[in-house]
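Collaborator request, handled under Task 6.
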Amino acid sequence: MEETTISTLKQIPLLTVNAGPRDGEKWIERLKEEYASLIQFVKMNKSSDNDWFSISSNKTGTKWTGKCWYIHNYKKYTFDLQFDIPVTYPATPFEIEIPELDGTTSKMYRGGKICLTIHFKPLWAKNVPRFGIAHALAMGLAPWLASEIPHLVEAGVLSKD
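Structure tokens returned to the collaborator:
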């Protein structure tokens, strides 16, 4: 892992409540931790001029939508972002989707789900229930964007202008 990645990860608060959407009040406590962790992550990103996503959830915290962006060669590429929290969360991580990029890269599954199986899911499994949404964005989505967007631009899949 890169030093900057480790530094970022250390600054994101770890979660303690091991609860999913079917766990009633415990899920509400988990959501409070998720939001606190996300707020800290966003503050950290903004303070280092590295703001790259915005998300919000439905009332139950099970459906999340938003935008993510990546700047490559001084051009900003913005994408819709979504994910559903599985009922077995946090034991099972959620799948991050960028629907408009569906089928554009081999590191993506049907429906625009980004590939996290090889690198991120084993790390997630070792850190249940301490990892949450902010960790998945930092350790899953951010590296995926950094790896795939430049490749998609250079391959002509994403427009350079």
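The cover message to the collaborator said: "The first strand starts at residue 53 and ends at 57. The mean pLDDT is 91. Please let us know whether this matches your experimental observations."
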